[in-house]
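Form 12-C: Joint structure prediction
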Amino acid sequence: MGIVLTSMPSSPHTTQRPPAPRDRVRVRAVAPGSVGNVGPGLDVLGLAVAGAGDAVVAERRPRTGIELVDAGHPDLPTDPARHASAIAALEVLRRAGAGDVGLALTVAKGLPLAGGQGGSAASAVAGAAAANALLGGPLDAGALLAACLAAEEAVAGRHLDNIAPSLLGGLVLVRSLDPITVTRLPLPATIADELAVVLVHPAQRLRTAEGRAALPASVPREVALAQAAQVAALVAALVAGDWALLAGAVEDRIAEPARAPLLPGFVEAKAAALAAGALGSSISGSGPTAFALARGRAAGERVAAAMVAAYAARGVASTARVTAPDLVGVRIEHLAPAD
Amino acid sequence: MGIVLTSMPSSPHTTQRPPAPRDRVRVRAVAPGSVGNVGPGLDVLGLAVAGAGDAVVAERRPRTGIELVDAGHPDLPTDPARHASAIAALEVLRRAGAGDVGLALTVAKGLPLAGGQGGSAASAVAGAAAANALLGGPLDAGALLAACLAAEEAVAGRHLDNIAPSLLGGLVLVRSLDPITVTRLPLPATIADELAVVLVHPAQRLRTAEGRAALPASVPREVALAQAAQVAALVAALVAGDWALLAGAVEDRIAEPARAPLLPGFVEAKAAALAAGALGSSISGSGPTAFALARGRAAGERVAAAMVAAYAARGVASTARVTAPDLVGVRIEHLAPAD
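Section 2 - Result
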């Protein structure tokens, strides 16, 4: 059957047959963005999305440790100890028993910073996957998840709902962090082919830490149970390809009510999305990006336009993209030596 | 696709073509028991199980109102205003605008009282379905759910996780009570044919009200989110027919820890079930019945024997049955007049 537990393929997807280890001197890993939470699945559900991603080129260097040739964005730290890609890559070296290896990393950010599109997770995944590929793939997916979690914890918070889909692709359920128990859920062709994921990024900053601080420490039992039912309905709808059930299953009573007041225009953008035919809409991860799900690209485009207009009416500039689930996760490319 | 929302068939399953309304003077409805919660799905998930059920024979009588000819058990109230079957039947008359109709109900209890096997729900469902059939089926499934909820609320508590599977059959997700939003999830043939549901009823009494009083009013956010992930994993496993995922998905961090101390022998019986090969085990509804899931009847029998032995080792007598999902829900039979 389509669902697998953490027993995933031992190395991420490669676009070509890897060359012999001695030639693996340059590797590029590209990791997709993701929608964390997907509405009700706070911290436990994530969906990888196609299109923009973060890329890391890794090459060996004579000196041990990690050198950050390019951090990928002027606002990102150049200190490897504080950059998600470098932390994850170093953690891969450590876990692989390759502490004597030196790596130079060049990061290219395709995802927005602090956008709620899984950017820090994608940087970590790309860094970890590139380092692992350069070593010949000693770590399996579970160990890579752990390496990336260390990076995400350092820069954004201890959660896997962006890491896991960015690494594995598709829809991923995070059942436990200790031990890491992650389930990649199968998406039927109808969902994979038709689901439009609308991402609208308002010109706002909301650091993940702020978004998390807004969350309640405890929730009334009734809310917890209702939320569980919504997550189950959402997962059942996506796994069974049931569009009718999907409509209405993106309903979050824990994070969205806490974070919406921090995000001017979100409430209006969500209402506009639903009025324009979205099956559901909520905050992507901890925001500020708002997402919506729609059936078909054309519907997605209408929803995107409605959301941008709603933000604009509140005086908030925004950019939108309409994309689709990414079913592959991180891609590895073996490059020729630089010179 | 297999999943449907509350838009279910407008009347429950009948075993024969209903006769013309004037001849509908006696009807028997038999409603199956159910496992409420199914582990993590407290109040939101229920599974109908085959075998024992509660039966209600309804016939018209000249005087308006409900007469309880037989309450079904010496410990059940003979006052129609306090009996689940009669409350539900009266609610059906009211909702159907048939307040001038008189009904005589004869209840036969196949399910244990206060057992945690959905007995009060089955009595309500059988009473409501029999009354509805006698009227010619004016109420749809949504209205029948509402009628049964009124009865369950009066005798056991306001929840639908036994009512809905007993009425509809199969695995049912309760997403909301106000308004009633219930989703019947499709079970693939492998699950429907092979899943063994083990029910072990210890000689203990735990009233539903006591079981509910033990529940925490609020839960830490992390627990709520972990629980949501388990419900989603359980639903995904059952809907996708993934046995590997099912193993380990019956994990409840909210109700079971609160109720287990009230149920001597449960912890040992659960451990014995898992050691004997069960895929999962927890308390059925609010107990005292313990349930376990296993793959195949033979495995179910081994698990049942191990659980009974574990209770016995704690000095608790118990009876076990090994059954399977019931996919039909309440059955209606039109009877010939009594004389």
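Section 3 - Comments
The longest helix of chain B spans residues 221-240. Residues 1-12 of chain B have pLDDT under 50 and may be disordered.
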